[in-house]
Amino acid sequence: MKHPVEKYIEAATRDNTRRSYQAAARHFEVEWGGFLPATADSVARYLADYAGKLAVNTLQQRVAALAQWHVEQGFPDPTKAPVVRKVLKGIRTLHPAQEKRARPLQLEQITQIAGWLDAAVAQAACAGQRPAQLRHARDRALLLIGFWRGFRGDELTRLQVEHIKAVAGQGMICFLPFSKGDRQAQGKTFKAPALARLCPVEAYLAWIEAANLSTGPVFRGIDRWGHVSDDGLHINSLIPLLRSMFDAAGVPFADQYSSHSLRRGFANWATSNGWDLKTLMEYVGWHDVHSAMRYVEASDPFAAVPPPAGQTVILK
């Protein structure tokens, strides 16, 4: 059994961060053949060996992970040495690369996917195929909440039923105990609107009613017999799930989308419909302008898609 101190230390680090740090340490020791604790020269050689093979952002994450390992184990941090910093700077100079960004989902595509899911739910219900009916209802809620709230993938997988208040025709309030920008772990509340069409509130209520959920993770796995798991979806399963859904709905280039596509798609929709950057940042939860701008397509005439006919969308 873990000591309470260990439990709270573990809770202070996001699961994604912990996994990436562990993977980086394994890569340094196993794949490359390094030794921990490391010297500054060995870290510099490690970076040089993977320059041009791994993205600069990936190498920077590896450096951060190695630094964290040394700090936690009580060893001097070799990544702060001038030689490591100079090697990283040289790699950025000699191996510039355009940042890969997820393809944004536009509202037209959200409408297409949601329509396909509606038909799939109805067809599964008529055929008595409960597993398929549940999966499509879950995926519809995942799609619409993810888009209209601009949630990150890990935020979607961490939503808890007991932390959500939803009223049909009015809206929903989602509480996340912690998120990427919440460095003090104070928690943050997000509101989602009730809409005439493509409504995230209606989709959420339909899903939790179909799955008979009252507590625990909102989005869960469903086996072939229609049993809903007690555990939430793993973050690594989210992208394959979304791509499979998009492909089945007939969206071209489905393999170019990820969970960030929902967030980027909403950001583009909001800016093309007159939102200023400050309003968008407050709604989505960005604290840094540079982070927000990474999600927004500037002056892209193809990104501006109007709301569905007859629908006025007001988000607060």
Major sheet, described briefly? 3 strands, antiparallel
Strand/helix succession: HHHHHHHHEEEHEEHHHH
Q: Please, how many domains?
A: 2
Low-confidence stretches: 298-314
CATH architecture of the largest domain: Orthogonal Bundle
What percent of the residues sit in helical stretches (DSSP H or I)?
Answer: 40-55%
Mean pLDDT: 85
How far from one another are the termini? Answer: 45 Å
Radius of gyration: 22 Å
CATH topology of the largest domain: hpI Integrase, Chain A
The named CATH superfamily of the largest domain: Intergrase catalytic core
Q: Could you say which overall geometry the principal axes of the C-alpha atoms support?
A: elongated
Could you explain how this protein is built, in words?
The protein is mainly α and 316 residues long. The chain folds into two domains: 4-94, DNA polymerase, domain 1; 107-293, Intergrase catalytic core (hpI Integrase, Chain A). It has 13 helices and five strands. The strands form two sheets. Strands 1-2-3 form a three-stranded antiparallel sheet, with helices on one face. Strands 4-5 form a two-stranded antiparallel sheet. A hairpin with a 5-residue loop joins β4 and β5. The longest helix is centred in the middle third of the chain and has 21 residues, at 107-127. It is elongated, with a radius of gyration of 22 Å. The chain starts with a helix and ends in a 23-residue tail after the last helix. The model is unreliable at 298-314 (pLDDT under 50).
